[in-house]
Amino acid sequence: MPAKQGPQRRIVQPRPDGQWEVVKSGHERASAVTRTQREAQDRGREIVSNLGGGELTTKGRDNKFRDSDTVPHGNDPCPPKDKD
After folding, report:
1. Which distant-in-sequence residues (6+ apart) come within 8 Å of 44 by Cβ?
2. How confident is the model at residue 2 (pLDDT cuts 50, 70, 90)?
3. Is residue 47 predicted with pLDDT exceeding 90?
4. CA-CA distance, 57 to 23, in Å (whole number)?
5. Nearest to 22 by CA among 50, 6, 41, 35
6. 20 to 30 A Cα–Cα from 63, which one of 20, 30, 36, 46?
7. pTM to 2 decimals?
8. Handedness of CA 6, 4, 21, 15 (dihedral sign)
9. Under a CB-based contact definition with an 8 Å cutoff, are residues 18 and 26 in contact?
């Protein structure tokens, strides 16, 4: 039986080239790279939602955490039907 995963977490942070990236802790590469912080936050929410919900944390240009957002799971196109 596979281990149950906890809530997903992604971090929005600035890159040295001036762009913004969405990363997972301990990352080797970015999940997404965007031109603006807002675009990165929107993409990060989408990623976390698709993974079942979790936490999106944002760092400012000073590399300090400045915002955190709990993201609910996405809409399931095939939700389970109630058993009556």
Report:
1. 10, 11, 12, 22, 31, 32, 56
2. very low
3. yes
4. 10
5. 41
6. 46
7. 0.79
8. positive
9. no
